[in-house]
Design a protein that fits this description.
The complex is a heterodimer of chains A (333) and B (304). In chain A, helix 2 links the parallel strand 1 and strand 2. By secondary structure, chain A is of the alpha/beta class. In chain A, the strands form 3 sheets. In chain A, strands 2-1-3-4-5 form a 5-stranded parallel sheet, sandwiched between helices. A 4-stranded parallel sheet of chain A has the order 7-6-8-9, sandwiched between helices. Chain A has 2 domains: 147 residues, 3-Layer(aba) Sandwich (Rossmann fold); 145 residues, 3-Layer(aba) Sandwich (Rossmann fold). The termini of chain A are far apart. Chain A contains 13 helices and 12 strands. Chain B is mostly helical and 304 residues long. In chain B, 76% of the residues lie in helices and 2% in strands. Chain B has a two-stranded antiparallel ribbon with strand order 1-2. In chain B, helix 1 runs parallel beside helix 6 and helix 10 runs parallel beside helix 12. The chains are: A alpha/beta (333), B mainly alpha (304). At the A-B interface, helix 1, helix 3, helix 4 and helix 6 of A face helix 1, helix 9, helix 10, helix 11 and helix 12 of B.
Chain lengths: 333, 304
């Protein structure tokens, strides 16, 4: 019996080795031209993060790094599993790529840890606070092999936008997952700036998608409007529940990402994840062209104002014409 | 080609040893004590969080890692207390602890994520002594082997002592052990504590290896532990304490190897979960089918 177990183990090992090496034996003859190897890792499937990734690929193509021609993209998604995130980081480093591109905080942290001691450049995107995450020493200075684009946005424009649409808001509600760094940091800053605008903040938290509806419902009657931070749980997968709460109770909901507003919110002063991806892609191109990563400080996200008049009407809000005229993006059904 | 093979193997070997600690923990509660303990998802993160916060506050990484064992022990003791003293069903006690620990972990870390990048971890200390670069997989493997060996010898010794024997007997036949005048509650408390202490240790090592602790890092740990135990059992048929411990580590190694290979082949991690499920079903069904073919008797499935 003991021998049999060992045989199975050895057999699976052999199979493993053959299987892992096969892909590398077939795909390495691109006709003499330099083929750049670029690895992209993403924490989970999510509309914003997907457009972030597309932005990277498109921007690199603009700069002459075209998939299949002179760049090979190796894309992996951890689907929310941190142990898989670590395996992906290790795999990427073992490929000795020209560049690693990470989408979200944990992917960046695992990649930087795995690449310790190597010179592989790492470009992060969609990391809200790269300084606290330990990726870069400060907002002005990149680490020797790490820089990127944050989805950090300034809070005052967010609040000002809401007050432009609804000047009478006195209590602003927010719902987010306290287990997500991005969302938690933004909610904290919101609470800090609120007094400047005479606003009171009420919070509801949802630890998983299943709790989002309940969190939204808990805000009904306690606030005049809801603002959703860039939170994968509430702003991503669970946004439909919040929209339902808003429409049923005529409670206007504002968002902080274009993708979120598109699903059916009143509007927002939003990060555009495609834009973030593009900026990260441009940085990647500059590095592949030989620029020194240490000279490229991390970037913050630009914001654009988005309005969705039809969705606003469903939540009982008429957006002032002046705000619609001034908006960067006006969405229609 | 050898490069790739050795990188796959060495990384899975490291992961197998570290997650083997989780598997041993699950083995102790589930198989030895017959106590399905779901605290694991929480106590794993608890270990990682404790160590990360201590290291960030300037504590030497080795005592910080030991503190994680202590934190895990406390979590396990609480689960055991809920079960033995308040008479909550084992499954429920574990689930409640897992849920409660989520909030506690957020409190400990003061947020969802604590970065250990550019902090000195146990791996750095060991690398310093051995004069390796800290990112070297060899360092990770040496640390993991050292921990696994220590755990192996301690448990191998402990489970053979009188107390250890009583603990094992509690899982086999609680009534009988009680009849012999042994306090089985104490054994269950001890078993849960040791199990979660090991899981906390695994969380601490992983957090230092990946250079961060995150409140979501324990999600799915119990599934991984169970899968490792079951795959290990199907492959090695453990008899005796030493084989039992090796089975858990071997199972974890095979499981991680499988995941690593699947990832490198480009399989979608979304599908990975289904494959894990199928793998465990096969590992569980094979002994039954084999017995069926030989017309042997097979006990009905446990329902806990």
């Amino acid at each position: 019996m003991k021998k049999k177990g060992l045989l199975v183990l050895l057999g699976s090992l052999c199979l493993a080795l053959v299987l892992t090496t096969l892909p590398f034996m077939t795909g390495c003859v691109p006709g003499g031209k330099k083929m750049y190897k670029v690895c992209i890792s993403q924490i989970a499937t999510h509309p914003d993060l997907d457009s972030n990734r597309q932005g990277i690929i498109d921007a690199m193509a603009e700069e002459g790094f075209i998939e299949g021609e002179n760049v090979e993209f190796i894309i992996r998604n951890a689907e929310g599993d941190m142990t898989v995130a670590v395996s992906i980081a290790d795999y990427f480093v073992s490929l000795k790529p020209d560049l690693i591109h990470t989408i979200t905080t944990p992917m960046a942290q695992t990649a930087v840890a795995a690449a310790e001691g190597t010179t592989i450049p790492i470009i992060f995107s969609s990391v809200t606070d790269p300084v606290t995450a330990g990726l870069v020493p400060s907002w002005e200075q990149a680490a020797p092999t790490v820089t990127g684009v944050s989805d950090w946005f300034e809070m005052p424009p967010q609040v000002e936008f809401i007050l432009q649409v609804l000047p009478d808001v006195k209590v602003l509600g927010t719902a987010y997952n306290p287990g997500e760094v991005n969302a938690q940091v933004q909610a904290q800053i919101l609470k800090e700036v609120a007094p400047d605008y005479g606003l009171t903040i009420v919070e509801a938290t949802a630890a998983s998608t299943a709790d989002v509806y309940a969190a939204g419902m808990s805000l009904v009657g306690r606030c005049d409007a809801i603002w959703i931070p860039t939170c994968n749980t509430v702003g991503g997968v669970g946004i439909e529940s919040i929209i339902q709460v808003g429409e049923e109770n005529q409670l206007p909901v504002f968002g902080s990402a274009v993708g979120m507003v598109e699903t059916g919110l009143v509007g927002g002063c939003s990060c555009d994840y495609y834009w973030i991806g593009q900026q990260a892609g441009y940085i990647a191109a500059r590095i592949l062209k030989g620029e020194n990563i240490a000279n490229i400080p991390p970037m913050k996200s630009a914001v654009s104002t988005v309005v969705y008049p039809a969705a606003a009407a469903r939540m009982g809000v008429t957006i002032p014409q002046a705000v619609i005229d001034a908006a960067d993006i006006v969405l229609e059904d | 080609m050898l490069d790739i093979a050795s990188s796959v193997l060495s990384f899975s070997f490291y992961e197998g040893l570290v997650f083997g600690l989780v598997a041993i923990g699950v083995y102790l509660t589930l198989r030895v004590l017959a106590f399905p303990d779901l605290t694991v998802d929480g106590s794993y993160t608890l270990g990682g969080a404790t160590t990360a916060v201590l290291i960030v506050h300037g504590v030497h990484p080795v005592p910080a890692t030991v503190a994680a064992i202590g934190a895990g022990l406390c979590a396990g003791l609480t689960t055991g207390f809920l079960n033995t003293k308040l008479r909550l069903p084992a499954l429920l006690a574990g689930i409640l602890m897992m849920v409660g620990l989520y909030s506690i972990n957020l409190r400990i870390m003061g947020g969802a994520n604590v970065s250990l990048l550019r902090q000195v971890t146990t791996f750095h200390k060991v690398a310093e002594v051995l004069r390796f670069s800290p990112g070297d997989i060899k360092v990770s493997i040496i640390v993991a082997i050292a921990i696994a060996v220590v755990v192996f010898f301690i448990l191998n010794w402990f489970l053979r002592t009188e107390i250890g024997l009583a603990l094992r007997a509690t899982g086999d036949n609680e009534q009988m052990v009680r009849g012999l005048g042994v306090d089985t509650d104490k054994n269950i408390l001890m078993g849960c504590a040791i199990s979660n202490g090991l899981v906390g240790l695994a969380g601490a090592v992983v957090a230092q290896g990946q250079r961060f602790a995150d409140v979501g890092m324990g999600i799915g740990m119990i599934v991984m532990g169970l899968a490792s135990v079951i795959i290990g059992e199907a492959l090695f048929r453990p008899r005796g304490v030493a084989r039992l411990l090796l089975t858990a580590i071997g199972g974890a190694f095979c499981y991680r190897l499988f995941i690593t290979i699947a990832l490198r082949l480009g399989m979608a991690p979304g599908d990975l979960k289904l494959i894990t499920a199928v793998l465990v079903v096969i590992a569980l069904a094979v002994p039954f089918i084999r017995k069926k073919l030989r017309h042997e008797w097979m006990p009905p499935a446990v329902r806990w």
